[in-house]
Amino acid sequence: MPKPDDTRPWPQADxxxxxxxxxxxxxxxDFVDNEExxxxxxxxxxxxxMGDNPALPRMPERPCLAxxxxxxxxxxxxRHLLVSAKRxxxxxxxxxxxxxxxxxxxxxxxxxxxxxxxxxxxxxxPYVSERVAFAVKxxxxxxxxxxxxxxxxxxxxxxxxxxxxxxxxxxxxRDAEWARNHPWYMAARQxxxxxxxxxxxxxxxxxxxxxxxIARHFRQxxxxxxxxxxxxxxxxxxxxxxxxxx
Length: 246
Description:
By secondary structure, the protein is an all-alpha fold. The protein is 44% helix and 2% strand. The two termini are 26 Å apart.
């Protein structure tokens, strides 16, 4: 967490700072592309947003995983991840599965929703075991593949979300079938089993309950997530500064 007496200067101080939302979030929606209008408004006192946004909680200089949970992830995504992991922990799952449950939707928290399992696995791959990354990636296609023998029916929620006639695309079906025949199949399948959407009756869960699991199985870079020059550092930086113009 950032220190209460954080005295770092704010970027672009004393200027009006304009935000142009990333196209991936509005393509196909009713949002009217206003990039040209924003550019026309620029002057010495009006600029395009770059760096820390005072409307968001300020991230520490060397952010750790828990900082993204508390300072960036949306409330529903955060609670969904924490409850999924807590349920796995309560049932005595191994720590790889617990961590995979905790991280399976991290891209939904503050980055991107389409293909969230693939994005989430890529985000965490440098910092976790291959088995954890596998479980996170393949939980997404396996969500559409029921396996009644291990206690996983097709989710009723998906009928509500997408309609009862929805069929996942070919690549998703292909990846689900491939994962079902992999030695780590049950790790990914356990993530789908604990991946519940409706949990209003579940007690609140704090990220601190997973400090030990994270310490043992998540390789937190000393430089901070986003600043370790890993192949995915830019993805973590995007969550730190989601309103940067470029």
